[in-house]
Amino acid sequence: MSDTLSQLETRLMRYCAIDSQSDAESPSAPSTAIQLNMARLLVAELTEIGAQDVTLTDYGTVLATVPATAPGPTVGFLAHVDTAPQFNATGVKPRMIRGYNGGAISFPDDPSLTLSPEISAELAHKQGHDIITASGLTLLGADDKAGVAIIMTAARELLANPQIPHGKIRIAFTPDEEIGRGVDKRLPADLGVDFAYTFDGGAVGEVEYESFSADGATVTIKGVSIHPGLARGKMVNAIHLAAKIVAALPQHTMLPELTDGRDGFIHATDASGGSSQMVLKFILRDFERDGLQQKGDILRAVCAAVAAGEPRAEITCTIAPQYRNMRYWLEHDMRPVDLAREAAREMGLDPVSVPIRGGTDGSRLTEMGVPCPNLFTGMQEIHGPLEWISVQDMARATELMLKIATKAAG
Asked: Is 194 designated active site?
């Protein structure tokens, strides 16, 4: 096994075993203290491989420098340390399936689960690859610990071989990307780059410069509470009103499970409370500003209609911006995108730019003035127990980072 493959395998399996799930309900930064366990490990590893300016900021981001060996722009590479809160990420047990044979993969901790090319189409192209999955009860966390492993492996290669020509490279490992809080307002200045890349994409060859625009919505429903035995004509059940709101939203055109491509959606992510008060959480997504505005207007209109039908209730709908499509800025300066595409072609890859049906730290960074496209890692079936990744695909991503670094200096 080559040193690069060995490094990637060892790092990813070590990182994935560390619990670093973020929490959208927490007001702290980072949202969970456990993310700092991962951050401190990375500080130690960056110091060990010889990186300079290694820092853990008070907002939970790890920063470091790979010194320049040639003139050129300062380029940033980023990945996030947190894992998604949508599925269990505690007690992850990464496992290696070496030399995948092309058939179905079972999971030791959940015999009912099966991963196969019929379920995950990318798997059909990975015969002979070394595949890493979790054990069946958790997600894996390759999103985005694969990105962390890729950047660390490439940085080690550059630091160990100063004869490789490259400009100054800045590394950032952020917390809370999965809950939309990965980019602190201080990060652009602290990072100090001309442009950057996130390694937070999927299939080999992806060079992405377009993401969803995103808003978050909170709907609060206050009913009228009274003893149920005395409730006739008096009680207003907040649960029933919450159900009416969800049911009144477009059911066939705007649900995430029924959309793809460039379709946006309104997604109910959380419901909490009881008969006297309910709180509903939604995320709104669209690739265009007017489409996002339309979805907010639909949600407000539904809330207003339900409120009009029950004037004794109090229903509020608050919508807050999260991030915007990075294309709005990158389409005016495609140099970082073109550089990554040229690097991929020199590796024999056919670069693919598809709209990301989600967002990255690069969406926020680009909006804040740091052009930041997104690059592939190889991760698949993320945010669930079937998540998997090929070590060989990660090696291609590592090669891409090295190629971009040298081409930028050239």
From this structure: no
3-state secondary structure (DSSP) of residue 77: strand
pLDDT band at 172 (very low <50, low <70, confident <90, very high): very high
Is 387 annotated as catalytic?
A: no
Domains of the chain: 3-211+325-409 (3.40.630.10), 213-322 (3.30.70.360)
In three-state form (DSSP H/G/I as H, E/B as E, the rest C), the secondary structure along 236-287 is ECHHHHHHHHHHHCCCCCCCHHHCCCCCCEEEEEEEEECCCEEEEEEEEEEC
Q: Spot the catalytic one: 82, 122, 200, 367.
A: 82
CB 146 within 8 A of CB 14: no
The arithmetic mean of pLDDT across residues 377-384, rounded, is 97
What is the mean pLDDT of the segment spanning 27-52? 97
- The answer, yes or no, to whether the previous bond of 336 is cis (omega within 30 of 0) is no
Calculated CA dihedral for residues 198, 201, 207, 213, nearest 10 degrees: -80
Identify the pLDDT of residue 253: 82
Return the bridge partners of 284, or none.
215, 266
CB 199 within 8 A of CB 397: yes
β-strand pairing of 95-97 with 207-208: unpaired
pTM, entire model: 0.93
Q: Which of 144, 177, 361, 381 is catalytic?
A: 177
Tally Cβ neighbours within 10 Å of residue 92: 24
Identify the CA nearest to 381 among candidates 130, 138, 177: 138
Q: From residue 99, give the alpha-carbon distance in Å to each of 114, 118, 203, 396.
A: 18, 19, 19, 17
Q: Which residue type, as a one-letter code, is found at position 145?
A: K
